[in-house]
Structure formats: structure tokens, C-alpha cells
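Annotated sample (chain length 140).
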Amino acid sequence: MRANVILFWILAAFFAIVTSVYTVWTWADSGWAHPEWAGTVALGLCFVLGAFIAFYLGRVRNAQGAELPEDRLDANIDDGDPELGFFSPWSWWPILLAAAAALGVTALAIGWWIFPIALVLFVVSIVGWVYEYYRGHFAR
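Output written by the structure step:
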């Protein structure tokens, strides 16, 4: 995490420099009348975002009191490999959930009459996925 903090502080400093150079450059290009505000604000907000993330990660690193396995030179690969949970390898329900999401987005583009179909497909798919191991061949 220390490397991430350093990288985000470098990124924030880069955007601060680029913001100031861009502001002065566009101000001089307009005959010292006004800078170009859209790019100046966008680059300034990139600086703020990089600084926020660097500050947050630095605070989290200090609060943890320990280094991540990625920061230690003597760490093994298995040290940074946590258990992520149980996933059903033969389940078809996530594919149907993706289809329901695709139909929902399609309803935004084409017409609202598709949305109830997507909603019904979503409800059926989420219920099937949640209760997949309660009945049938995989029941426990």
C-alpha cells in the first residue's frame, strides 16, 4: 500500500503542475483576457481526486499498523491470496442476470415496454440464483 500512496501523491503533483501550466498557457493564448475554464477545472479536479485517494490510502495504511504482503520483500505469493468465497462453477443464473441487465439497458435506448420483461427476468434469475442449492441435484 505504501507504493500506491507514493504513486497517487506523484500523480497529484503531476496534475497540479499540469493544471498550472495549462491555465497560464490558455490565459496567455487568449491575450491575458481569461483562461480556458473547462480544461482548467477538469485538470484541477484530477489533482484533487489524486490527492484525496493518496490521503485516504495513507490514512488507511497508518491505521492498519501493518504492511500488506505486496509491500514486504520476504512475502510469498500465498500470503496475498485470500479466500474470496464460494462460487458456483456450473450455475447458469449469472448469465440470465446479465441478460436481464442488458434488457434493462436496452429499455432505456429503445422503449419502456421492454423494462417489465427485464424486471420479471431479473426477479426470476435472482431467486433462482439465491435458492440454487436448496433444491434439485445440488440440494444440501
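Annotation: The chain has four helices and no strands.
Annotation: The mean pLDDT is 90.
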